[in-house]
């Protein structure tokens, strides 16, 4: 889970590069690019007969998708489903290009990858950026650190050419991690932050902002389609919206504030009874979070309502409960968004089932939630920087 809280400091040591490199946002071209996907096998059982999106794509193999977001052009970049936990895509950095697998994360704003100078154990098992092999690389004396829910990294700001497919950002600021703490079991090299930029003299300019400012993206929007279980087809798209990835109409929700992908939730209910968010609450839509996170007391209440039992940092439940438990409904801007038991009960590699609700690690003065991939697999999501809003519709 990668909801971040960031602290920055400037220290000019003459060690080359430390942390943060990543990201490649997509610029637009005059046609739509679809790149074949490779899928990482998950531990969960494939649900047969449910690959609706692939059926649609096979029906119309030679037609370009219908794009209509104020007439914009669109770039589609493939994502890989890793164990139904994270969705990652490939980018390259440097000249000649060095390839990295990064998490596309709406909960953070920095692009980073490990540096070859990082000696932390977590760095050693991932692809590390070799700055001496890039002719377009330049470093700075700016450093910073970021704390995520899963760990902490410290790094230095650098500049180089970053590519996402055919999209290119020249002299893109990014982070190189010099030290990493935590991040156990991480299956990707770095993080590509897609949140609003954080104001700091030391923080790298997000790649989406740089591409937007230089006119590489026709419209300041991006969107996610996250596949379920072992299905292929997960994508992040930039500059527009492809209607074939969702059903019905997009419902637009204004942001609480134009500096974060946080929206207002009216209430959370089950069996027509309000079980949380009784006076309204905030929720961050976070593609870097695997589960649904909320205040500990309210999460405990939900676990009791659905009959789960705590054990080893998870709440376990009978797998057969997916057939009897009701949906938990998030009402947002007057519209209900059900999360059925088939979505909030997950099956592990041992065959045991557990719930997708987690207590937030950081307490806040007001009730706030994080709607991660469990929610976003159900609902196609559009992040509109131009109008400071999020669009939601049932995913295909």
How would you explain this protein's 3D organization?
The strands form 5 sheets. The chain has a 6-stranded mixed barrel. Strands 2-12-11-27-28-13 form a 6-stranded antiparallel sheet, with no helix packed on it. A 5-stranded mixed sheet has the order 14-17-26-18-25. The chain is globular, with a radius of gyration of 20 Å. It has 6 helices and 28 strands. The chain has 396 residues and is mostly beta strands. Strand 21 (328-332) and strand 22 form a beta hairpin. The longest helix is centred in the last third of the chain and has 11 residues, at 296-306. The two termini are 25 Å apart. The model is unreliable at 1-54 and 56-71 (pLDDT under 50).
**Helical segment tally?**
6
Give average pLDDT, whole number. 84
Cα-based radius of gyration, to the nearest Å = 20 Å
Beginning-to-end CA distance, first to last residue: 25 Å
Share of residues in strands: 35-45%
- Estimate the helix proportion, in percent: under 10%
Largest β-sheet summary: 6 strands, mixed, barrel
The main sheet orders its strands as: 4-5-10-6-9-8
* Low-confidence parts: 1-54, 56-71
Shape: globular
Name the structural class: mainly beta
The beta-strand count equals 28
Protein name: Pregnancy-associated glycoprotein 4
